[in-house]
Amino acid sequence: MPDGKLTPAGSVAAFGDLVERLPPEARLLDCACGTGQLAVGLAALGLDVMATDASAAMVRRTHQLAEQHGVPLRTLRVSWDELSDRLDGSPPFDVVFCVGNSLAHAEGASARFDALTAMSRLLSRDGRLVLTSRTWELVRARGSRLDVGHRLVRRQGRDAVVVYNWQIEQRWDEEHHLEIAVAQVALDGSVLTCSERLSCWPFRQEELVSQLQAVGLEVESNTFDPDAENYTVVAVKGDVPAAV
C-alpha cells in the first residue's frame, strides 16, 4: 500500500474530486473494505457508510479502526455473490467502492461478472461504481518473477523488506498466484519473515469495460494507461454516454 493511503484521510484523498461532489446524505458502500482505511475516512466526513468484506479478519480490523477514530460505521462480513441477498430491501447506494485491486480475486470471468452484477443492483439510478485495478497487461507481460524491494519499508515503527513472488500462467483465464513475503528487521538485528499466498484471476482492461456495460453501467472516467501500474474506472448506472 502506498504511504499516502496508510491513513483514512489519505485513502479518501485519492478519490477527492468524486467525494467532494457527494451530497451530505449520500449512502456509500465499500464492498472490499480490507483494513478499512477508505471506509473509515469516508465515515469521518459524516457520510453514511457501510463496509463489507469476505474476510472476517478484515471486517474486524475495519470495525476496530472505526472505533479508534470515533466514527459510526456499519460493517458486515459478506462475499460479493451474497451482497444482493444480504442487503436486499436496504436503500440503494449512491456510490459503491471496490478498490485495492480486489476484483481480481473473483474466480474467473463468470464470478467477476456476478460480482459486478451484484454491485450494480445495489446502486441507485445515476449511482456510481468506483473500481481500481492493477494493469494486468503489464503484470503478465513481465512473466513469473521474484521482485525484491530495493529499500526498507517502515510501518508503525518497524522496518521490513517486501518480496513479491509472481507466478504467471500461460492463459489469462487460469488461476495466477502472488506470494508476498515480509522480512521484518528487529532492533537486535534478527529477521522475522511471514508470507501469504494469494490467488488471482487477471483481466484485460477492455474486458472489464465490456462487463461493466453488460451489467448496465457506462464508463464515466477511466485512467487506464498501458504503461502505468494501476488505473481507476468510474462507471455510472443509467443512460450516460461513456467517456473512456
Automatic annotation (TrEMBL):
It holds the Pfam family Methyltransf_25. GO terms for molecular function: methyltransferase activity. One of its GO terms (biological process) is methylation. The keyword Protein biosynthesis does not apply. InterPro entries: Methyltransf_25 (IPR041698), SAM-dependent_MTases_sf (IPR029063). Keywords: Methyltransferase, S-adenosyl-L-methionine, Transferase. The keyword Methyltransferase applies. Residues 29-127 form the Methyltransferase domain. This is Methyltransferase domain-containing protein. It comes from Streptomyces meridianus. The lineage of its organism: Bacteria, Bacillati, Actinomycetota, Actinomycetes, Kitasatosporales.
